[in-house]
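Try this one yourself first.
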């Protein structure tokens, strides 16, 4: 086992179900929001909700260290409910400054497959008077994606409610072009690994070009994640990439800081 894996295993073992439940009750989970930009107009189009655990004992815990545990810990329904309650409440505030922005949330396969998941999302949206067209759901490809999700019908139901379904981390992991055909995908997010070495690696440029072309031929807009430099931003814009996200534009920000940021970037 690698050193990193050992370290992560140790860290995960130390977090208990009771601790997570308490953290949920004590409102220690918070969302930071990272804007997504239209590369052509240079304006923000929406924000992606990225979860953090602000633990009084552990400090700020990144999502990948606790979300898989939250899901395994039978807290999944409380977690999903909290996710939509919080992000819709924050979207309401965001809309007072930038009325047309969408809210993108990351969903795991386990969340989507819970019974009545879509009904729950719709009810919370109605409570907050949020039109579902402002919601974008990001899914990541994994080995178990297709069959279970297709059979649950949840993505179809979300799409029928005008929710945008986007494929996150496209090009990495278990990417399968079949998913683009079988699922109601409407947007591709190119994995940040391709963008990281975009300027140095000609192969990455070829792959990114091909993903942009593929997305457009299928009628989807394409977003590049992890843009950190002017050169990357310019290259992507010149090669027809529609949207961008990354530290070059902004890091993920707590809701109040995001609102100040948006006031300065109308
Ligand atoms: P993701 O959805 O692909 O989010 C992008 C990640 O890249 C975020 O990390 C973001 O902070 C980071 N990032 C953004 N711009 C840059 C950049 O320019 N350079 C670099 N190096 N990184 C950048 P974060 O917030 O640590 O999230 C990691 C992953 O955790 C997310 O990947 C997403 O898959 C998952 N995640 C976050 N929040 C949630 C959630 O509420 N539910 C679920 N199921 N997963 C979540
Ligand atoms: Mg994402
Ligand atoms: Mg991603």
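Now uncover the answer:
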């Amino acid at each position: 086992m690698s050193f990193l894996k050992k370290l992560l295993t140790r860290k995960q073992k130390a977090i208990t179900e009771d601790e997570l439940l308490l953290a949920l009750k004590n409102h220690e989970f918070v969302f930071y929001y990272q804007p997504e930009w239209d590369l052509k107009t240079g304006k923000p189009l929406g924000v992606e909700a990225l979860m953090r655990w602000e633990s009084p004992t552990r400090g700020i815990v990144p999502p990948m260290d606790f979300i898989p545990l939250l899901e395994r810990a039978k807290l999944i329904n409380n977690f999903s409910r909290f996710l939509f309650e919080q992000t819709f409440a924050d979207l309401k505030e965001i809309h007072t400054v930038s009325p047309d922005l969408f809210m993108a949330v990351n969903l795991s396969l386990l969340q989507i497959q819970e019974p009545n998941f879509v009904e729950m999302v719709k009810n919370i949206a109605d409570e907050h008077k949020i039109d579902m067209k402002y919601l974008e759901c990001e899914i990541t490809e994994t080995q178990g994606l297709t069959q279970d999700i297709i059979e649950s019908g949840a993505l179809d139901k979300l799409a029928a409610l005008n929710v945008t379904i986007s494929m996150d981390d496209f090009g990495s992991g278990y990417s399968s072009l079949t998913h683009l055909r079988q699922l109601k995908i409407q947007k591709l997010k190119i994995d940040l690994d391709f963008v990281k070495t975009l300027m140095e690696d000609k192969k990455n440029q070829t792959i990114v070009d091909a993903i942009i072309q593929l997305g457009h031929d299928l009628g989807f807009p394409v977003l590049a994640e992890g843009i950190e430099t002017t050169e990357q931003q310019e290259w992507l814009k010149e090669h027809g990439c529609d949207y961008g996200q990354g530290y070059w534009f902004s890091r993920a920000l707590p809701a109040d800081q995001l609102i100040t940021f948006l006031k300065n970037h109308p």
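Discussion: Residues 48, 106, 138, 168 surround magnesium ion (ligand 2) (CB under 6 Å). The radius of gyration is 18 Å.
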